[in-house]
Amino acid sequence: MTANEIREAVLSILSDIAPDEDLSQLKDDVAFRDQLELDSMDFLDIVMELRKRYRIQIPEEDYPALASMTSTVEFLEPLLKDA
Amino acid sequence: MYDTIIIGAGMSGLAAGIRLAHFNQRVCILERHSVIGGLNSFYRQGGREYDVGLHAVTNYTPKGSRRGPLTRLLRQLRIRWDELALAPQVGSEIAFRDARLRFSNDPELLASEIAQSFPSQKDGFCSLVASIADYDRLGTGGFATSARAEVARHISDPLLVEMLLCPLFFYGGAREHDMDLAQFFIMFRAIYLEGLARPLAGVRLILRKLADRFKSMGGELRLRACVDRIVVKDATAEKVVLEDGTELAARRILSSAGWHETMELCGPSHEARMIGGLSFVEGICVLDAEPRRLGHDRTIVFFNDSDRFEYRNPDGLVDLRSGVVCSPNNFVYDEPLAEGMIRLTALANYDRWASLDESDYRLAKLRCYDQVVASAVRFVPDFRSAVIATDLFTPKTITRYTGRQRGAIYGSPTKRHDGRTHLDNLFICGADQGLVGIIGTLISGIAIANQYLLE
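ok -> structure tokens follow
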């Protein structure tokens, strides 16, 4: 997957988790926590969705990499390069 | 072999089921009754739909809010705000013999009512609210300490202490006279700071939404499937056996049946009997007009006829000194409900009701309905001439349909906050895990599923 495709994939997960949010205004460099008020339960869901959809495991120590869209895409690029 | 078997298709069981089915588990929910919902359910009688349990959803936050338990659970269950279509309350009241306090979903109303009726307690109330904000920020604990002591630390007028506690006890008090501090903070915020709402179609809308979501993700829901026992082998729950003899095996079992009720399923044990527990009668009055046409415009009225509010198992069948009057009509809906309705709740004694023989029981129900209504109209406009249909359920009714011991709507007085049991693959959720109310019990199901069952 390209960086752009990964971004779309993450957006799709976010729209599932927070169906009431308008994600078209999402700022890639601002933490999800601050923009969308995501809490630890929601981050668990992002991880679970990535596992469910792309069969990738993300260990707990890597959760901070999922803070914002930019850092998430960067983190996922090597993991999803063959997906 | 299921990944998880869930006992009970109430709010917490359905919420847990959704979480697990969403993440590809093979899940089966077993419900003893022919209708889902457990302690928050519904029935049809004489061509009318009645709700059991839910008066109002607490923790109301308007659409677009990103904080609070309601938002959290909608996200976890992947439900859009609009799907629940919650209509906020018109406004409620705490009505004691010598004082009344109105409150609404705007916390300022209660603060100003207190400033007016209890001017010396204004600052104390502010500091109480601030201590709740601190508690939210600092987190956990306080399960054993007393809500009464905490409120009295801020508020010196004993009448105001009683008045503030009354709605919280009625909507979530599992033990007599007092409440765990953590529970108190949660309830205070849920009712006074966030507020009350209801979907036009009542509890059935919420339940159908949950059941549809669960089934659409491949979850299996079996009605009239009453668990007779949990078979235990080597400190592990091996399978459940239904009353009809069906055996179902699962890697893990999550029970929302209640702590004591679940222990009873595991075999004889001193934990298998609930001691204490509080129950209620509820009278339902269908009216030939909207309650506001009869001069009753409050959503919920919590009443008590003396200065001291005694929240305890009554000596007689029912405690007529206090109660709750809920009008499902008095929410801000886009369209009116089909009929006027008033629901009346009062504390009741399970043992007294359970000891009556069939004919005495029926007579007692009729008498109790009249008494509860007569008690309530001391605090709300007399609506009796407008009543066209009635029903009453008792502590016995609750036990018959839900299996909950002692008709204890809020479960055991002792909570098991970690959700664990003596078996490594048996967990509990729902009222006995510690969170009550619709929102609390949904969160309980979600939290226990997330913590123990997702891997």
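The first strand of chain B starts at residue 2 and ends at 7.
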